[in-house]
User: Fold this.
Amino acid sequence: MSIDNIKTSLEKLRSTLESSGTVDSELKGLLQSLDTDIQELLKSSEATTTTATTTSASAPASDIRSALIERAQGISARLAVRHPHLQPVLREIADTLTNMGI
Assistant:
């Protein structure tokens, strides 16, 4: 369920970015990079789920997830000031990453 939630949130973020011409290129690049990295983490998580899960495989995913959460929260704080219409979607993504067991 969490993976579906984050995919939905990422899609909302993508569509909002496409329809909003007010986001500067630097912030747009940060958001797209975060999106790509989260997609990679989700693919990795799904692959690990379909194969045998080991503790050594989950430790790096946990480290990556923590780094993504920090990045999402940092971008979210910038959005709160400059682009408040995008901030709730990014906060939802950070919250979902926090609650995911990947």
About this structure: The helical segments are 2-19, 25-50, 55-82, 87-99. Residues 52-56 have pLDDT under 50 and may be disordered.
